[in-house]
Amino acid sequence: MTKVTTDALIRKLETVVDLSASERDALLSLPVMLRDFGADQDIVREGDRPSHCCLLLEGFLLRYKLVGETRRQILAFHIPGEIPDLQSLYLKTLDHSLATVTPSKLGFIQHQDLYHVVTAFPRIAGALWRETLIDAAIFREWMVGLGQRRAPARIAHFFCEMFARLEAIGMAADGAVPLPITQEELGDALGLSSVHTNRALQDLRGKDLVSFERGKLTIHNWGGLAAAGEFDATYLHQNPERRPEPA
Amino acid sequence: MTKVTTDALIRKLETVVDLSASERDALLSLPVMLRDFGADQDIVREGDRPSHCCLLLEGFLLRYKLVGETRRQILAFHIPGEIPDLQSLYLKTLDHSLATVTPSKLGFIQHQDLYHVVTAFPRIAGALWRETLIDAAIFREWMVGLGQRRAPARIAHFFCEMFARLEAIGMAADGAVPLPITQEELGDALGLSSVHTNRALQDLRGKDLVSFERGKLTIHNWGGLAAAGEFDATYLHQNPERRPEPA
DNA sequence: CGCCCACTTGAACGTGTTCAAACGTCGTGG
DNA sequence: CCACGACGTTTGAACACGTTCAAGTGGGCG
User: Fold this and answer.
1) What pLDDT score does B4 carry?
2) Nucleotide minimizing C1' to CA distance for residue A149
């Protein structure tokens, strides 16, 4: 039972380090509490001091910050295999909230248990650390979009990123991936009103680069979309670069 | 000699963990290569695969990404005691550049050496990991500013952040801190043109909240500035929350 | 003293926002 | 099976924030 749950995590980490038997065992024997959530539910909220992290097994999550009652900035979207709140292992007070987008299956892991594992197994620690660094790399790239790119480029870039990430976990088929978010959520992630998001979307559609409807993103012209969004996947650090230990 | 150089780092880490004698020794005996840089010089560039990290001892640094030849997004400013490229320990290819703002003194530490320390001393690893998580928390807060706040609020928020960080390392005096950046750099960090940055700045000055001239930031009305920028310091995670290990 | 660089100002323009209404689609219940 | 309701998407039009271009000002340093 618990074996199944950390599988996704182990698979992810093994793209970076070759885990030894004892390392794999340590991860497999981590107590994981399974829990299902409906759509649009907060999992943890800004200001909380959670005692566990959660591994996303199925579904889509997002992280957000509210600002001044009416506005929110979506900070990230998360897909299966990720641990969206791994940071809470070291930063005790949450500075943002985590919520489901779709109905989701989560595996909760006690900080204490995780802490013992990262203390005993430096290579696991390194691989997890690396995950949080990629998280930060994605934030940086979003900052570039928010600060420097016009609406259509921002959207195009976002689509490229999500496609690349979803493809990497095997969720792409026929040039399409599931992306079950509304235009309003898209706008809140990209710092755009839903109205303008809609119009910029028509722009991309008009050039026959993508279609995005009913939670499905289909890329018609990858080259064109990547060019429109100035997308360069380096920041996702997907090329394993095998082994995080230097030299 | 090398003792002096890692002092700033040790002091920083000790606000979070109580280091044992052997842990402190390990840090003190880290080989550090000192090097001076002039103003406005690249230290490492996007695409590089550096073999070392650098600890900032004196001066100001910034990280940036260029986009489309003419625009750049500044991702972060760094102040003494920080390791701006710690991430390169695990993410081999740099996805952005690091440069000096003012003439600076840097201590370079080989990845290999640092890797041995974090492998042997999990608590040091945890404290450094935590630093990179705070880095990410700052990115998130900047995303909120870039996506949701109007120019004056963005600037006000930024000033509050820099003041808080500089104060924490003892660089504040009489409600003022050194902040030797131009309005153009400020704009590039906040996603604003230098012209508009200038006008928004006049706005804040007109309300007698701050003055910012000749590289010096003086806060006249902290409450007012924080309100204007909707600033809440939680995300800086400066309250030590003593000991990163859970429970 | 003079130059360079940063800051400042003005004015036209453009991207994106806001408000408001209409449309479409899907799921529910009569 | 159709009617209804809810929610997401689409459209229009006025407006605002921020950009761009261009020229001018001012201070620090060689």
Assistant:
1) 62
2) C15
Positions of chain C reached by protein Cβ under 7 A: 6-11, 15-20, 26
Q: Determine the pLDDT at residue B7.
A: 87
B149-242, what's its fold?
Arc Repressor Mutant, subunit A (1.10.10)
Q: Where are the domains of chain A?
A: 3-122, 149-242
pLDDT at B221: 98
Which residues of chain A, if any, have pLDDT below 70? 1-4, 240-247
Distance separating alpha carbons of residues B83 and B32, to the nearest angstrom: 13
Q: Which H/E stretch holds residue A109? A: strand A104-110
Cα B132 to Cα B114: distance, rounded to the nearest angstrom = 15
The residues, any chain, with a CB within 8 Å of residue B1's CB and separated by 6 or more, are: none
Split at pLDDT 50, 70, 90, the class of B238 is very high
Name, in order, each residue with C-beta under 8 angstroms of B5's C-beta and a sequence gap of 6 or more: B32, B34, B55, B57, B107
Q: What beta strand segments (E) does chain B contain?
A: 33-37, 42-44, 52-58, 61-67, 71-78, 97-100, 104-110, 176-178, 210-213, 216-219
Query: Strand, coil or helix: what is A241?
Result: coil
Chain A residues near residue B98 by CB distance under 8 angstroms:
none
Identical fold for domains B3-122 and B149-242, yes or no, is: no
The answer to whether A95 and B241 are in contact (CB under 8 A) is no
Residue with tokens 């440069």: B99
Whether pLDDT at B5 is above 90 = no
Per-residue confidence (pLDDT) for residue A240, from 0 to 100: 67
Candidates A97, A143, A230, A232: best to mutate against B (most CBs of B within 10 A) is: A143
CATH class of the region B3-122: mainly beta
- What's the mean pLDDT when you consider all of chain A? 94
Could you tell me the CA-to-CA distances from A104 to A31, A59, A86, A99 in Å, in that order? 19, 4, 18, 10
Instruction: Tell how strand B42-44 and strand B97-100 pair up.
Output: antiparallel
Distance CA B26, CA B80 (A): 21
Model confidence pLDDT, tens digit, residues B144-202: 999 999 999 999 999 999 999 999 999 999 999 999 999 999 999 999 999 999 999 99
pTM of the complete model beyond 0.85: yes
pLDDT given for residue A7 in this prediction: 87
Which candidate, B7, B90, B78, places its Cα nearest to that of B49?
A: B90
Q: Which nucleotide across the nucleic acid strands is nearest to B40, CA versus C1'?
A: C5
Residue nearest D7, CA–C1′ metric = A182
* Strand D lies under 7 A from the Cβ of residue A183: yes
